[in-house]
Structures
1.
Amino acid sequence: MNISRRQMLILLPAAAVAWKSVLAGTPEESPNYKMTDHWWGMLIDIDKCIGCGNCVRACATENDVPDGHFRTWVERYHRSDWPMTKSGEVTANPLIVPEVISPDGGKEGFPVATDESGKYFFVPKMCNHCADSPCTQVCPVGATFISPDGVVLVDQKYCLGCAYCVQACPYGCRYIHPTKEVADKCTLCYHRITKGLTTACCEACPTGARQLADLKDPNDPIHEFLKTHSVQVLKPQMATGAKLFYNDLDGSVR
Amino acid sequence: MSVFKDAGHLFRFAGLFLLAFLVFLVVRHYVVPKSFGEYGHYRGAAIGEIAAHPAKFAGHETCEGCHTDETAKKMAGKHAHVNCEACHGAIFQRLPVPEQPKPSLYERLVALVVKPAPPDPPLLLHAEDPASVKPELPDTAVLCARCHTASAAKPKGFPQVVPAEHSNGLPCQTCHDPHSPALNATSLDATKQAAGGAK
């Protein structure tokens, strides 16, 4: 590749600016980020997830998640071919009997499945960053909130650790941090997405099963995807306005 | 005027009430964080504080800036959509937390309301200082097996092998280049000689 002096003079400052935005450590150094221009969500493609646990490990590394607690985790579902309960009785509702496992949140992957019958699939779970989140409504001190760009965050300096929000989350996505003794949860890697990076889980996913989505960006591929695929959210009956969109989600997932 | 004849005690009470209200306003001014209510019923400054955490995964765009050879090879192969840090992990070192200055009396009072969070340990990223933060070569026996170990639970179209049968115990990179894992004729021949006929 031949680069002329003129092209070099244009390229170098551009590269410097891009590098600066990557290294930016404080929000003051991310002046191009405007909260009102974004509305964050995530797309999870069940068909692509292979249950490797890369996302769980990446999240723990990026966010110093303590052992035994999870900001994101992966569940493996197994629906048998026959609608039976675990005790072997035939049931009328075939959806109520999936076998669900998540050893250590799927951090080290899953045991090899040898039973070829039935249907297997992996469901990565994390905070749904609900637009009408029950967890933020119950906080007695205003320590958890929905940011103007649609991310549910915890102000850990203000949190009392009363755990109302842990109980209020219908998806079980919050926990009390064992040493900080405050509520902790997925921040949708807020420190990354405000700098133009994707989340740690999306970055580490080897199959592209997770895709960060900016619903306010008209050029985001999420819009085309939502139009052309059968996409579902978890517990739609809770009317939480969840923004974690699952492609090809099985009806048995709770 | 007979209404106010014996009203002195009421005025004294109103005065006390006013004084208490003023004290309340003063205390409130000091204990409610400045940015509370900026965007809603929460501390607006918390958004900036959360956004200021250091990122550990540099992002594949950063890696691709320097490692152009590997990127070109990867983009031509079957792992084109696998980001660098999916296998190599985040490459960073934790630096010791610098000594914090002793908090003043005012800071300690404020700390009763807004807890001081322990500072993030400073990080040194490979992307910032490639010479002093050296990445370790991933162990392919663990790394490749995480994704490619055969399991009935994985999507049918995903390439899967039973490691014990597939490689006769040889490390994966004997035959496969992890950046472009499909086998070509040369590497296959060399491998067959080495492994004594691996599948």
2.
Amino acid sequence: MRPEFISLIPLLPLGGALINILFGGRLSRRVSTGLAVVSVALAAFMVVAFWSYAAGGGTRVELYTWIEASGLRVPLVLLFDSLSASMALMVTGVSTLIHIYCLGYMSREKDYVRFFVLLNLFVFAMLVIVLAGDLLVLFLGWEGVGFCSYALIGFWYREGRNADAGQKAFVMTRAADVFLLIAMLWLFRIFGTFSIPDIMARTELIPAAAATPLVLLLLAGACGKSAQFPFMSWLPDAMAGPTPVSALIHAATMVTAGVYLLCRLFPLVMLSAQGMAAIALVGILTAGYAALCALAQDEIKRVLAYSTMSQVGYMFVALGAGTLSGAMFHLYTHAFFKSLLFLGAGCIVLLGGENNIFRMDRAARRNPLVFGTFLVGSLALAGAPLTSGFFSKDGILTTVFSRGSGLYELVWVLGSLTAFVTALYTFRLLYLVFGGKEKTRGEIPTLSFSMAVVLPFLAVAALFGGVINLPAIFGGNETLRHFLEGPDVIQGFVAHREEIILTALAVAVFAIGWLAAYGLFRRESALRDNMASRFFRSGFYIDQLLETLFQRPFRTLARFWDRATERQLFDGFFSGLGNMTFGGAKIVRRMQTGRLSTYLGSFAWGLLFLASFFLCCALGG
Amino acid sequence: MTWTDFAGLVPVLILLGGAILILMAGAYRPHYRLFILAGISIALTACGVAVFSTSAVKEVSGIFRCGPYADFFMALWSLLGALTLGISFRYGEERKFAPGEYVALVLFSCVGMSFLSMASSLVGFFLGLEMISLNFYILTVFHRQSPEAPEAGMKYLLLGAVATGFLAFGIALIFAATGTLKLPEAMSGMVAGGQIVPLGLLAIAMFLVGVGFKLSLFPFHFWTPDVYQGAPAPVTGLLASGSKGAVWAAMVPLGAGLAGGLAEIVPLLKALALLTLATGVLCALVQDNIKRLLAFSSVSHMGYVLIAFLSGGLTGERAVIFYLVTYSIVVLGSFGVLACLSTPLGEPRALSDFKGLAYRSPFLAAALTIFLFSLAGIPLTAGFIGKFHIFYSAVRAGHTWMAIAGVIASLISMGYYLRLVFLVFQPRTDSPSPLAVCQPPGNIAVAFCSVLTLVIGIFPAPLLKFVAAILSP
């Protein structure tokens, strides 16, 4: 196959979306939804088919020149290397399963065409980010992802709350995008190109003083999409969207775009030790913050949202500690178990009839499939030994520990504490959702086949996903790490004995978390309402803080400009200009009398005008 | 004149012969649809022959020149003729147009346009121009039952006759001043010692009055809205596109002298351009009738072309020709939309008739929107590229203020073009619309024009290169 066909990977979902945009209303439901699923599944198949092209340095495919102006040339380049290929495989694979799940989940939805169009467009935009070989092209996908996320969070826009959540997500991520844009333009100024491989090959051109600010700008940009401090508060509200959307966008793919961006530009990130420290710090703060918040939520999807934020924080920690493969490993395992958890949560909410974990029916526990798979996902999230989440999280903490110095020791301690809190809130969720007294509500809806069928696949991935990067002490050879061949600065100089102790510690943390949860949450009365839990539940009142710090002054200022300048000055000026033009038009119009004599007279006047001009010419010359 | 001379004129001869045949056939068995289709195929044949013709001779009879420039315009005007007949398909049938005469007159006017564009002598110029005018005098009043037609025809004929008088007198004076009617020489002959001779000045003034009438330049534009309003919509389309474009095509070689001794008249042309722009734009702003609006809009567009014309040079000439090609397509398409929307009872008149068009005829609404965007000069349409090159040529020639005036004019023009677009997409109120819904044959021509508008707007480079190539072979 010609390498140009790699472009089919993003184009297939785009094609599915376009066909549904144009003809979706006329096709039958079965055909149009089927098209959406098949286009994504084919894209996943194409990634597998092109897998060999990712070997070595990867393949660069230049499709055509997108922009060509003096000094600026932006070709549409796709970069298919080990990093983008494995990410694309994860994105398309998880997306396919979620698309299949949506067939059942959205089966009562009347507006299904819009839903599947947006879902396909989202996959397209995400694949553009993943495969882009050029920062400007990447930015297109970046914004496309932001738009699709906005439109899907507010999918049920008739309810004002949902539309507000969509807007919040859009505005917050856009605010962070500005930093990414500044970083991109700065890089263009230094290198004269947007091409990612070219920039990465010549990172030595970056002045030493510019490295740290650049990394910080990139970090801020990444924080927006990945819901990290201080741009994190949009993610819990984003749960207003349909649950599969939360699974796809707000767990598996879009929120990892920030991590992917930093991985893509990792050689640049490594130039600045301060920048890496900042990344680790942001990551661990967000991880700890979100884990505490997750502890007090009373809606199942908000627990999962905060846990996503917390887990993405771990990925940032990994990047800050200098292990690209560690971050990507956790990204993949997290994508498996978190999409599983979200899809399971969709089933639980459907069976339980309620999003609130205190009020919902415990009907889900009588469905062994949902219970079993959700349990697997939870165990992986909590870091139960030998599940995928255990290996990836333990790998990150081990790397952080090996860095040694003061800051990283602090990060390691906080990371281990967060792991404890993670186990705690995960088992709290499990106990509250599946334990306790059963309330009956009468008839329990049945799950459709397409919803049930995807859960086992994801459960297997969540349980055994660890094998893709099994560490040596478990008899593995770190396949993913060798595949990515990331420029890991830490070549694992943790002694064998230390590694065993660290692993044992991770097991202990998990066990203590479980036991604590068993003691605290077995009965559902605990930790329901006191000041601490209110503080945690509201996300440390960050929203209120942002409201007072930014939104209220901004609104006041906007009102001032509106009243003082917009209405008085500009409106007056422009409507005055318009009125003047119309006044002039009315005068000119009077010449158009409709009488032939006027028209003939105008000939005479015209000739007189021309002749007198020439007379002046002749006399003057 | 020899046989090889004829070879250079084959496309025109096809049009001419076909028109005569159709005219004669019309006496025996007039069948409207068949005749229109025959006319379209004749025009398309002529167009195809013009595209592939390579003439051996440079000039025919010392009146018409041959070569890529002539071939290009023969093809263009034949194509416009075919499109005009296409949009007349239902329009003329409903109004019981005499088929033989109608088709023949449209083809004859295309012959006139071709001759005018090919003119290499003032005789050819005059012949071509009169051939167009005479046909349009008849075509304007072709729908005799229309209440507005007689007024339009009378005004056009009377004013046209006066203008022809000026033109003929101007040409006679040019001959008196220079002793030749050959085109580059006649113009350069008027310059003596770096200055235009006095007789030449008078000649140019007369000549400008005549040409100004045909091009609707201020203050010779007054006939435009009245005639546009009264004439049948397809005829107006051809009148606004082809007849004006052909005059520009003939003027471009004349403009070559502007850089040299004729530079004296550039300030005059500037004044004319500014006044034309202002009148066209301001009057269009307060029109409620769609055809009058398009008439004043065409006045303003002639002002834009004049800016490019007086800028001169290869850039200016290229801008003129590119603009007249795209403008012809767009304006014919817009009148095509009007023709498609006409019912046997009448044509669309008030702008408010267009309210809610998008919900009844989405296709025509989309096409009309594309045309209006192009007229307003909004990117991704041909009109934007055309305007860009006009302003570019003006800036390059040092007439920055003209470019700024042009930009301001197109800014004001947004007011009336976009108002119509808003109306088209407004939800309908309950009052029934007097407009028809679209039907196929006319739509094909409209669709062709709108697609071409977009294609040229997105990929202008091939046409631009081609125009540059025919200008400097």
